[in-house]
Amino acid sequence: MTTPEIGTLISASDTGDFCDQVSLAESLEIPTAWTTIGGAGGADPLTAFAAALDRTSTIKGGTAIIPTWPRHPLAIAQQALSIDELAPGRLRLGIGPSHKPMMTKSIGAEWTKPLTHLREYLMALRTLFETGEVDFSGDQVTLNTSIKKPASIELVASALRPKSFMTCGELTDGAISWMCPKTYLIEKALPALEAGIKLQQKQVPLIAHVPIVVSDDREKAKGLAQEQLHRYSTIPFYQAMFREAGFLIDGEAYPVELLDDLVVSGTKAEVIEKLKQYIESGCGEVLAAPLIDPENRSESIKLSFETISEANKSL
Questions:
Q1: Cβ contacts of residue 92 below 8 Å, gap of 6+?
Q2: Average pLDDT over residues 150-158
Q3: Distance of alpha carbon 159 from alpha carbon 269, whole angstroms
């Protein structure tokens, strides 16, 4: 049985700040510190985690996510194996295709069949980690190599639409959502994940990646959400998911009813209760992503982490 937990996202200004925040999260007994590709101040998150996990002793580190298009699976596997040697069992390796505008614009990726790309990437890495060797040749991914011995590295992946949640259920140790309204996660994502789980007969948690704002000022909370999450309303992949969830988004401000279903906000006690409701609704975990108040950054981070810590203790 997977133990429910609530982890935190780290958004740092540089690698030193990243390590400091991971240490703070551990001191508050938060089980997992997660970060995105830009969460270590623009530095490589796997390299930053190597430093942060070496400095700490118990907290796990999760990538949410490492985009697959810029790196061959062998490169990611080598980095992950190095971290696992430094901090055995503490890396939660999250990968995903990211989205077309970013990958085509930033690295000129030939974006074709992203779900096939993800499936092949997962199959190759999973075989290598579980058996210690792999000879895989797909339409988009080729990996033929071996390692000293099998590695117990948790492999998770991003998911947005039902087919990707099903793929995660079939091939991963967890599905990480982002920008998905709670009703969409419960009504669409969980059933799809469970359909995939039946194919591998193991527990796979839905890791609900949820923006949070700890504040009793509702207007300020909405303002932070509108400002910091706006760009997702302009991306076709997210627009399609919002439509499937019943919300029409065209790059303008998020409607209030969507924000209420998408962002957890309120006083510390209200945020704790709302985060617990995700667990109670069937999500195996929550990845709480604090929307930081730029006018009071350090206090905003501290308050968010303390709230997440208390939420874990009340599970």
A1: 32, 34, 60, 61, 62, 63, 154, 156, 174
A2: 97
A3: 29
Mean pLDDT of 127-154: 97
Q: Which two tokens stand for residue 170?
A: 């079939």
Stretch 166-173: mean pLDDT: 97
- Reported pTM: 0.96
CB 19, CB 51: distance < 8 Å: yes
Task: List the domain boundaries for the chain.
Answer: 5-313
User: In the structure, what pLDDT confidence band is assigned to residue 314 with cuts at 50, 70 and 90?
Assistant: very high
Query: Is the bond preceding 65 in cis, omega lying within 30 degrees of 0?
Result: yes
**95, β-bridge pairs:** 66, 157
In the structure encoding, which two tokens stand for residue 42, read together?
């623009």
DSSP 157-195: EE--SHHHHHHHHHH-S-EE--S--HHHIIIIIHHHHHH
CATH no., domain 5-313: 3.20.20.30
Distance CA 77, CA 46 (A): 11
Coil, strand or helix: which one is 275? Answer: helix
